[in-house]
Specification:
This is Cytochrome P450. By secondary structure, the protein is α+β, with helices and mostly antiparallel strands. The protein has 16 helices and 10 strands. α6 crosses α11, α7 packs antiparallel against α8 and α8 runs antiparallel to α16. The longest helix is centred in the middle third of the chain and has 31 residues.
Length: 383
């Protein structure tokens, strides 16, 4: 007998394409914990069960030799649990707290966003992922890591090579030479910034990490700070431009922009899934999970659970519980940079709508992706 009849039919294309949410809805209704042969693991789509997984590192851990990021950049807050996780995370948690973030980043984000829009404003057309969302995310990461002297193109090159190497490891290959070289270059640059006044230096000074551990965590921050923040901005703009009634509400009342960003995160989290591994055999969500099996939490599925969010597929600026979305995860591994990311998205959306009148999509598009979801391109016009 198949472990999960519906899950057996699910393909990677189903989980990466624009129709992902229809697939997740079927699984959530009948197999909220479903064995997916295409993933060689379990997929959790129910919100309550998703939260249980993320809040229980004793049963569902990230600390597993298969965790691909650790193979490329070394142990970090992303790949450790328990006391070691706390030792790696606490210094960065302090550095990226809400008050420190506002103090360090508010003016920088406003100024950098304005300068990016200055470059495109006269053209009346642009691809916003590459023109605004991506460059803003890179600039903020460079500021956080004290890499102000590094060319943004160079940082993106390191990032791309490291991400490709992580993907190769996930597919069963060795760490690539390009990935190792990129991480070595990042290592040199980060070590040079530890003595400065960046948030990274603050983290290094505030407790118990050696330079190698600081560099590993810097690489993790680079992943989250570039990939997911770019997607978060692109998805928020896409949701507004494809929902004209809500866009009109935002135009009339820019104070709704934080609601729009949260609702976009709920509908299309930039990181669609997070992975855990069982530490023991466990009965969970009507399924029997074996020891050391992969458990993938679908943040995208949990965020559209109708038990938590009535009319879950609607983009609703008046939704009262939209901040209960799980795009930043939950539990000990909740996103350390979520305050910075929210600030970037809110500022970018506000300035784009203020400065580019009659902003509209120039080409149809939609978010796609298995792990990270965003539009492949976001071509827009204005004026």
């Amino acid at each position: 007998m198949e472990r999960s009849p519906l899950g057996a039919a699910v393909t990677l294309d189903d989980l990466a394409g624009p129709d992902l949410h229809a697939t997740l809805a079927k699984l959530r209704a009948s197999e909220p914990v479903s064995w997916i042969p295409a993933l060689n693991g379990w997929l959790v789509t129910d919100r309550e069960l998703a939260v249980q997984v993320m809040r229980d590192p004793d049963t569902f851990t990230v600390d597993d030799p298969r965790f691909s990021t650790a193979q490329v950049v070394g142990p970090s807050m992303l790949s450790l649990d328990g006391a070691e996780h706390a030792r790696h995370r606490v210094p960065f948690g302090k550095a990226f707290g809400l008050a420190r973030t506002r103090e360090h980043f508010a003016e920088f984000v406003e100024t950098r966003t304005a300068s990016l829009i200055d470059e495109i404003e006269p053209t009346n057309a642009a691809e916003l992922r590459r023109a605004v969302a991506g460059p803003l995310a890179v600039a903020v990461v460079a500021e956080a890591l004290g890499l102000d002297d590094a060319d943004p193109t160079t940082i993106l090159g390191w990032y791309d090579s490291i991400v490709r190497s992580v993907s190769d490891v996930s597919a069963g290959h060795a760490v690539s030479a390009a990935g190792a070289e990129a991480f070595a270059n990042l290592d040199v640059s980060v070590r040079g910034s530890i003595g400065g006044d960046s948030l990274l230096a603050t983290a290094a000074d505030s407790g118990g990490l050696n330079e190698t551990e600081v560099v590993s965590n810097a690489a993790v921050i680079m992943f989250g700070g570039i990939e997911t923040t770019e997607g978060m901005i692109a998805n928020a703009v896409w949701h507004l431009l494809t929902n004209p009634e809500q866009l009109a509400q935002i135009t009339a009342d820019p104070g709704l922009i934080p609601n729009a960003v949260e609702e976009s995160l709920r509908l299309e989290p930039a990181a669609a899934v997070v992975d855990r591994y069982t530490t023991r055999a466990v009965e969970f969500g009507g399924a029997r999970l074996g020891e050391r099996e992969l458990v993938t939490v679908s943040l995208a599925g949990a965020n559209r659970d109708p038990a938590a969010f009535p009319d879950p597929d609607a983009f609703d600026l008046g939704r009262t519980n939209t901040r209960q979305q799980l795009a930043f995860a939950q539990g000990p591994h909740i996103c350390v940079g979520m305050h910075v990311a929210r600030s970037e998205a809110q500022v970018a959306v506000r300035q784009l709508l203020e400065r580019l009148p009659n902003l509209r999509l120039a080409e149809p598009t939609a978010p796609v992706g298995l792990v990270f979801r965003k539009p492949p391109a976001l071509h827009v016009r204005w004026g």
